[in-house]
Amino acid sequence: MQSKITGTTMPVLEIGLEPGDTIVAEPGEFSWMTDRVQMRTSALTAGATSILGALGRALSGGGLFMTEYTAPAGAGVVAFAARVPGSIIPLEVAQGCSYLIHRHGFLCATAGVNLSTGFQRSLGAGIFGGDGFILQKLSGPCTAWVELGGEVVTYDLAPGESLQVNPGHVGMFESTIGFDVTFMRGFANAIFGGDGLFVARLTGPGKVWLQTLTVPRLAHAIQPYLGGGGDQVQNVETGLAGGLAGAVLKGMFGGR
User: Fold this and answer.
1) How close are the terminal C-alpha atoms of the chain, in Å?
2) What are phi and psi of 78, to 5 degrees?
């Protein structure tokens, strides 16, 4: 299996498949593929062995159903383009290793990938689309590709070293990282600081990937050009944030 990432602002991942290779992604996420590539959609893949496992994956931001791409009759190519301006990060996920990624970060992976809910915290309606803060757990063994928004900044945290991050900028981190979401310190900071009520604390050891572009900030940036005021922006954010019902419908009908 060969892969190639082309582009910078809106990159695309192209994967060359040989007989026996399998790529797993959410339905409707591929951008183009050659004639020899075949698709099979199922709920019982990406680590889910029952409908409850598939529902857990949907709750974490993935689809209730997933699509497997193969090329049994000969070499083929399938491509996945970035959904927002940003970066596509390749990962070699060894047996026993795992990563936590933001809920819309999974792009695709080879067979052996396991997707589940890695972190969930209820933070009140309206804070994160009314669904709290959720991270996907990505484990293997597999090769995976993760999509992060904007530019990517990495930190290698030493044992006990901590980093405080606006939760929307948390892109991905190794499972060895200690993670929690807490209230912003200081009443005035939380109420009048304009940075939100909550802050994510990441504590080493381990590697952290931060993303400079978040979907809510992108929605606010294009607000003046939507022609409908704040209500439309709120609808955009709510639709992008999604929840279990949205993930289930996305899996059933293959929408982006």
Assistant:
1) 26
2) -130, 140
User: Is 169 inside a domain boundary?
Assistant: yes
Does some domain include residue 239?
Answer: no
User: In whole angstroms, what is the distance from residue 130 CA to residue 137 CA?
Assistant: 21
125-144 residue pLDDT tens: 334 444 457 888 999 899 99
Angle between helices 51-59 and 244-253 (to 10 degrees): 120
Q: What does the pLDDT look like over 64-121, one tens digit per residue? A: 688 999 999 999 999 999 988 999 999 999 999 999 999 889 999 999 898 887 776 6
CA distance 147 to 25: 12
State how many domains the chain has.
Answer: 1
- Is the separation of the CB atoms in 5 and 88 below 8 Å? yes
DSSP 215-255: HHHHHHHTGGGTSS-HHHHHHHHHHHH--HHHHHHHHHH--
Sign (positive or negative) of CA dihedral 206, 207, 211, 215: negative
The domain that holds 130 is classified in CATH as 3.60.160.10
The range of the structural domain enclosing residue 85 comes to: 2-230
DSSP state of 158: P
CA distance 144 to 92: 7
Residue 74 lies in a domain: yes
224 in a structural domain: yes
